[in-house]
Design a protein that fits this description.
heterodimer; A: alpha/beta; Transcription Regulator spoIIAA; five-stranded mixed sheet; 5 strands; B: alpha+beta; Heat Shock Protein 90
């Protein structure tokens, strides 16, 4: 059990996708923070986070989303999430995070929501 | 026959890159317990949160040593995280009200709440300027 990777791609309709995989903890969270910071610096505020490859998240990982959500929403954007394994969703759910973030089973559903 | 008490311990520099080593230590030491994956994930996350708090709050990212002790008794698993850094009074740490927390886009301060939600018991034994202990207890069914 090791490693963490984050990649950023452009999707349709001006949505940027951050894909995370591996273990997101206090050690690896700064890498995700950097990816968010780069997008926000470029004025990219429609951000989809693809959790498909993520095996683990701690509160340090949750903190990254909390650190950017206000700025993103105040610029008419959003952070939406998709493809989360049940064990990851359970951590979000334990703290009530699904009331703040829209979480979709599939990427296509999230992209559709961005178009609305 | 009474089961023997098992004790395992790791002494490790308190730095974030060692969180993975600590998680692996917990997995390997609890192998015989056959915890359900859900329970195992809860224990791993609670230990991770406790250790992250030591690294950030007790040692302020200075690489002092921390100890993680794991004790298996017939009815319970106890993971004790021990440091000699800055002390705190757990009673003075406000439990975040999640509704307000989320609405005000706060960051951080969720570790202790998570530990409480994830484990059956959490105990703090704080000896100011000497030693801090956090005990995370999970009942074995």
């Amino acid at each position: 059990m090791s490693g963490f990777a984050v990649t950023t791609n452009s999707c349709e309709d001006g949505v940027s996708k951050i894909s995370v995989s591996g273990y997101l903890d206090a050690h690896t969270a700064p890498e995700l923070e950097k990816a968010f910071q780069t997008l926000v610096n470029d004025g990219e505020y429609k951000i989809l986070v693809d959790f498909e490859g993520l095996d683990y998240i701690s509160s340090a990982g949750l903190g990254v989303f909390m650190g950017f959500i206000e700025e993103v929403r105040s610029n008419s954007g959003d952070i939406k999430m998709c493809s989360m394994a049940t064990k990851i969703y359970k951590v979000f759910d334990l703290l009530g995070f699904p009331s703040l973030y829209e979480i979709f089973d599939e990427e296509v559903q999230a992209l559709e929501k961005f178009r609305e | 026959m009474t089961k023997k008490i098992q004790n395992y311990e790791i002494k490790i520099p308190a730095k974030t890159e060692n969180l993975e080593t600590i998680r692996n230590f917990i997995i390997s030491a609890t192998k015989s317990l056959d915890f359900h994956e859900d329970e195992m994930n809860k224990i791993l996350l609670a230990v991770d949160e406790a250790c992250s708090n030591v690294i950030r709050h007790a040692y302020h990212f200075k690489e002092n040593l921390m100890k993680v002790n794991l004790r298996i008794e017939a009815s319970r698993l106890t993971v004790t995280i021990i440091d000699h850094g800055k002390s705190f009074n757990p009673q003075n740490v406000k439990t975040p009200e999640m509704d307000k927390y989320l609405k005000s886009y706060k960051v951080g301060g969720l570790g202790m709440l998570l530990m409480k939600k994830l484990m059956d018991e959490v105990e703090y034994d704080i000896k100011p300027n000497s030693q801090n202990k956090v005990k995370l207890i999970k009942y074995i069914k």
